[in-house]
């Protein structure tokens, strides 16, 4: 077992029963002209998560530990996009509309790809998901059962939307979940801070959080 200094207390995991889950590190959320910006967000904050997520990927790859990437996206005919999701609010472009990186949040379009720094490599699982939670309408649960995982390390964007939703889904399915603090970002710094706090409140009601350096120190011991 590996023991990581974390909040609200030490996180212990068996590396042969652990996977890294990187949530939605897509150009649509991170770069100007994508889905995140169409919703009215300042996407510049997102850049901060790229370096630490890349480092985390490197740590898992060096050890041959499993890596799973998710991508929020929809079929070109929008058959998996609830009208309520597409029609809500007054975005500058809606899901499926043509934008500077191709059709917004559509599978296979340039904007829906993972940023090059965090791109999947051969052998890594990529889960396309229509919702915010990565377990909803996907094979993630089956993939994790096949791996025999009981602990999940989380990174990705955005902290309070797809990362938190997926961590809550995972928590309800019995996984111990650790979020790496610098490897996640929100469009709203105060939402990121609040989400980290609510994850670890009440004795780790959703899971644990830790700085990347603490995780790296623990796995190097
Ligand atoms: N809008 C926002 O903060 N996030 C999303 O729509 N999706 C993800 O978090 N991936």
3D structure, described in words:
The chain is an alpha/beta fold. The protein contains 8 helices and 10 strands. Tricarbonodiimidic diamide binds next to helix 6.
Give a brief rundown of this model.
The chain is an alpha/beta fold and 221 residues long.
List the keywords.
221 residues; alpha/beta; 6-stranded parallel sheet; two-stranded antiparallel sheet; 8 helices; globular; binds tricarbonodiimidic diamide
Low-confidence stretches: none
Q: Strand share of the residues?
A: 15-25%
Count of β-strands: 10
C-alpha termini separation: 11 Å
Query: Which small-molecule ligands are present, each listed once?
Result: tricarbonodiimidic diamide
**What gyration radius follows from the Cα positions, in whole Å?**
17 Å
Q: Count of helices?
A: 8
Multimeric state: single chain
Order of helices and strands: EEEHHHEHEEEHEHEHEH
Shape call: globular
Helical content class? 25-40%
* Sequence of strands across the biggest β-sheet: 7-4-3-8-9-10
Q: Which class best fits the helix and strand makeup?
A: alpha/beta
Overall pLDDT:
98
